[in-house]
From TrEMBL:
Gene Ontology MF term list: ADP binding
Boundaries of every NB-ARC domain copy: 172-213, 236-366
Record keyword Translocase present: no
Keyword RNA-binding: no
Domain Disease resistance protein winged helix: 462-533
Protein name: Uncharacterized protein
Key words, A-Z: Coiled coil, Leucine-rich repeat, Nucleotide-binding, Plant defense, Repeat
Amino acid sequence: MGTLLRKLGDLVAERYTLLGGMHDEIQELKDELESMTACFRDVAGIGDDDMHKEQMRTWMKQVREIGYDAEDCIDIFLHHLSKHSGDNRSLGRHIHKIFNFLRTLKVRLKLVTEIQSIKSRAQKVSERRLRYKLDAMDMKDNMPSSSSYVDVDRRLPALHGDESPLVGMAENKQKVIDLLNKDDMKLRVISVVGIGGLGKTTLAMAVLNSREEDRNQIPSGQPNILIHAGQPNIQIRAVVPVSRTYDLRALLQYTVRELHRRPIGQGEDPLIKDIGSWDIPKLIQRSREHLVDKRYLVIIDDVWHSTAWEQLKVAFPDNGKGSRIVVTTRSDEVATNCSSSNGDIYKMEALTEADSKMLLFHTVFGSETIPSTYQHLLTSKLEDVCNVVFKKSGGLPLAIVSIGGMLTQRKNESVDNWENVIQRIPSELQKGKMLDGMRRILSLSYNDLPYHLKACFLYLSVFPEDHEIRRGPLVRRWEAEGFINEVYELSLEEISTDYFNGFVSRSVVAPEQLSGGGEVRSFKVHDIMLDIITAKSTQENLMSTLGNHQHSTVGHDKIRRVSIQPGSRDNYFSRGNLRHVRSLTIMSSREKPKDITFSNLKLLRVLDLEGCSWSLSDKDWKEICKLTLLRYLSIRRTGNERLPSKLGKLTGLVTLDVRQTKVTHFPKSITQLQNLQHLLAGEYVHYTRTHSVKHFAYRKEVVKIPTGLSKMKALKRISFVDVKGKGIEALHEVAKLSQLTRLCAMQTDPNASWGNFSDTLSDMNNSLRYLSVMQDEANCNIPEQLNFLHCIRSPPVLLQSLHLLGRINSLPQWFQSLSKLSSLSLRHNYLETGMVDVLGRLPCLISLKLYDGSYTGTELSFTSHQFPMLKQLVIDNLPNLVKLSFDSGAPANLERLTLFLPRGSAASVLGIRKLLKLRAVELFGINDGHVVNTVMEEVNSHPNMPIRVTRDDQPPPPSS
């Protein structure tokens, strides 16, 4: 509504004086909708759907539909005005004004008619509300008030991989391991069953990741899941998520890929080279052949129906080597049908009162007791509050974490305020239906969100279960949908990032990937929470989700947004009821849905085809280029190889994402996209599952940008500029883009210079926040490749992230002025020991990644008073390194350490035990037993018991 009201204001502004007598009509509609919006906001925070009377829900639906129709009407009108605003200027200003009025007379008359109709509808809806005595404020007076939380610091503790959800579940983990360790060489299937939110998947993953360090927990003489009666260690460990809806062929294909997963950096197994063309029987055969002589442990996660297990189990042979399968499910029937015997079912139980209390404190304070700094909470009432939490949560970990997420916002307040939060939990939680109780607690998490976050949160229903939601694409979609409005001096990107972090801080989503500074880059939505979101968004007609039959579109006059998810069927729609769709998402489909014709989607703002294996036809592109309201277009990870020549007709486009495609050129018409802000191309390769080590995919051809880049004044982000050939001209044009905050420039020609790129960077010193400068890695031996950086006359002092790839004789002097730099990665720079002193003085550096060839010294020592804010350190393939030491516990704030040492390296690593805030250690590529033992000894004796990841992976050589 905020976006709509601003557009209505524009219509009565001076530049549309030719609307004549319509001013009063539009003003009246604007006033009516403002009043409706105020009432809408009042009732939106009332609480659970049960609290809304049927009349109230009907009224809210009618208000929403009026808003949608009004915005569609205005957008079409404004597009027609802008389409002709630049025509016939040669006729003279006065004549042009008259000519333009005549050309747009039809659309103006249509606007008059539609505005009158919408205003009449709005008035009737208001009258109807009064006629049936529907008073939102009377309802609200009888309900607890909705709180407004202040967002916490977006930089989260580095808890990725933490098993904190297993607080109080150590016994559960051991019992599952005991079931797996039964002395039986036959294939056995163990089921872990329980309602959503108990932590079944977390428990299964903890069992899967059990390693040698767990052996001391096994009674002497009892076999464990690593060594079994003289049999070899488990050779294959894999996780196969099933979920409620699935495509059998896709599921088997995923399974085979997981079973054939090779060490990171070695590429795909040649045995599955053509897997994309295999049918189901061949996929099953390949799985069985691969496993026939191996001992394996596989997690089959989230099985909803016995049919899924019956279809999948034939891929796992009983090879007589003591292999095991763990199935997690919410259904007792599924658990019975999957398990080898009744004794192979582990039914998860809720937490005890003591364990619930520990988990609550861990969620709120990061420790299992209340720190002394929160003395104001240590009152006699606290025990009563904890008892209420336990009773109302039923001991469900997810419920406790959800409540704890809200209490985190209150930890600086009194216990009385904690009680107010607890009192708003519906009393029905005390009933025996634990699933209902879970849903109500998770609904409370939604209801407690600030008003501006509600639509953004319901929008998450666009994604299917188990989908990893990345921050960048999500917030750009929010912007395109109009869910985010600029506030004071904050940009849309800054506001949307705060929205994203608002979900994470309230524990209503599960973080997946963290940035170097601890920011959440991606998350997943708990399954039960996603059920609630999907039901609510469908009820409010915010999203129509296909692929989950539980949430149909029946009952809505007009469909506004559609998400076609894996497992959906064709023929859900007729062409007619898609006319009002403004957002279309097709998730990872193998072929284009038959019912989708882009020419019918004239109101489309968002088109996301990420992960679809089919390519858009010439006809599709022709139709898409006529979608004049389109703001977001993503063909990421699709089979498309080109973009249409008429792409420039999409003048409203804000985001264009062609990453991980075979597109190699942008059409000349792209420079007509005056509103484009995000131009995304290229591809990164991740060498670790935690994404702590990544590299630009140089083997893929870089997309070329045509001349005329300077016309695109709205650009904020360019994921590349190729300096080769005409790229030099492009760099000159880049300097004219005053809004540009992110730039990735690369040089693919070893004999070409960077020209006057130093001048370009000097001209952009007040706008750049993120910068990558990369020489083609195959030519990294040419000396002084990046020495032009020394010539920058005005350094980008506002820079927050910097990546340099290429030789440079030393760090430029202006490095010392980068007071806001928080992330730095260096590769093939061949810098000497003085580098550490310069970087150690940067006051805000949080993440430092020293990749292959970045440092030539034999010793790397971190001493006190250096790197005061550093939280993440990556040491990747420094061949000359002999000694890595952390003296006196420096860096004092280091939380995550990644070591990627070359094979055969004898480098000593000292002082890890002194890093008091260390939470995670990753070891890759280390095959020297002494080095591993020394490092692991320090890690295992560390008081924080940091997460350990040890893998014998090695990234490919630079030339590959």
